[in-house]
Specification:
The chain is an all-alpha fold and about 400 residues long. The protein is built from 15 helices and no strands. The protein has a single domain, classed as MFS general substrate transporter like domains (Growth Hormone, Chain: A).
Length: about 400
């Protein structure tokens, strides 16, 4: 058993390394893109549109992307998606360098990066169980490390890097993200070959229906998908205009904004790395319900926090709960879905979850414009606490 797990770790190692590098660039982009938007306009709706663009791509191409991934070998899809994102980010960096960037062009670039991410994420989530198997302990350990590295790059290292380099030169974070995708493409090209799933190549529309049918008929997956949608809606409702809240209410400087976001990674990394023992006694649904409750209370605390230091502590708690959400939902999805359907089921989850994130980001802009910058945090807190109840309740299936 120990020998098998060692081989498993080596097999998935390139994906973990690629994740650590590329998401650091993404973390820089998460901080730099809203800062660039805020330097071009002070309109909350325009700023929130940048965050929404990251997610609305899943509404446009998420399901067909999953169907196409399910009929191809995973490794070439991962490499191609990384290369496409590198080209888009290089073009955006050129626009910023030449002073021709605008909010519409920024939104378009972020949207196109999101389209490529639809293919990458579906293939990455499908390749993990193909390499490590579907044992719960192994899946939660692998996914815990995957999401811990994701958190380190996206929330700990990336945002301070993005905000600091943006303060030095607005072009740097976007050029750096382009380079990170090139490095990621090299690494994922070293993954073990996983052949395309067996079976006939149905028409895309028929294949999409097959993935949706599996999700609808598997009650645990359906509840988790809807719960993930509620979480993403609430989180992005709060975070979409948080850059304005941090600057105008908490009085955080541009360079400090990335460090404030990075506090979420402190709890996220610890929770992700220790996910297997933390989730051992809970079903996937129970773990998700606890995470929703903690996240709601954390956003309430941030809204009431008198300064950035206390807000940062509470964001660390929120990050820990978010990591457990990612591990629990991802492991359940991989454990309860056949290989031939996994790309489509991942896309169906993302359609619900990330589509809800885009709508939540737009809602955050509307709420902030209507009731002020603190209002989105309070509304998100209520929604997340309420969503925890139906996620926990009902018949629990042992994971």
């Amino acid at each position: 058993m120990g020998r098998h797990q060692g081989v498993t770790t080596r097999g998935v190692g390139p994906l973990l390394a690629a994740t650590g590098i590329s998401v650091t660039g993404d973390g820089a982009l998460i901080a730099a893109a809203p800062l660039l938007a805020a330097s071009l306009t002070r309109d909350p709706l325009a700023v929130s549109a940048v965050t929404a663009a990251f997610y609305l791509s899943w509404l446009l191409v998420g399901l067909p992307a999953g169907a196409l991934v399910d009929r191809r070998a995973r490794r070439p899809v991962l490499v191609a998606a990384d290369l496409v994102r590198a080209v888009i980010l290089a073009a955006l960096a050129t626009l910023v360098l030449t002073g021709t960037a605008s909010v519409p062009l920024l939104v378009a670039a972020v949207l196109l990066v999101g389209v490529a991410q639809c293919f990458f994420d579906s293939a990455a989530q499908a390749v993990i169980p193909a390499i490590v198997g579907r044992d719960k302990e192994t899946l939660t350990r692998t996914n815990g490390r995957y999401w811990a590295l994701d958190t380190i790059g996206r929330s700990l290292a990336g945002p301070p890097l993005g905000s600091t380099t943006f303060a030095v030169n607005k072009t740097l974070p976007f050029a750096g993200d382009a380079l990170s995708f090139l490095a990621s493409a090299v690494l994922v090209s070293r993954l073990p070959h996983v052949p395309a799933p067996d079976g006939p190549h149905e028409r895309v529309r028929v294949a999409v229906r097959g993935g949706l049918r599996h999700l609808a008929r598997t009650r645990e997956l359906l509840v988790l998908a809807l719960s993930l949608g509620a979480y993403n809606f609430g989180y992005n409702l709060a975070i979409a205009t948080f850059v304005l809240y941090a600057k105008d209410v908490l009085h955080v400087a541009d360079a400090g904004y990335g460090f404030l976001l990075a506090t979420m990674a402190v709890g996220g990394v610890a929770a992700g790395w220790r996910a297997a023992p933390l989730l051992r006694r809970l079903s996937y649904r129970q773990a998700q319900a606890v995470a929703l409750l903690v996240q709601g209370l954390a956003w309430l605390g941030v809204a009431l926090a008198p300064n950035a230091i206390l807000a940062g502590v509470l964001l660390a708690v929120l990050g820990a709960a978010s990591a457990l959400t990612s591990v629990a939902v991802g492991s359940a999805r991989q454990a309860l879905t056949p290989d031939a359907l996994l790309g489509r089921v991942v896309s169906a989850f993302r359609l619900v979850g990330i589509g809800a994130a885009g709508l939540g980001a737009l809602a955050g802009g509307v709420v902030a414009d209507w009731q002020g910058l603190r209002a989105p945090l309070l509304v998100a807190a209520v929604l997340l606490v309420v969503a925890a109840v139906p996620t926990w309740s009902g018949q629990q299936t042992a994971p």
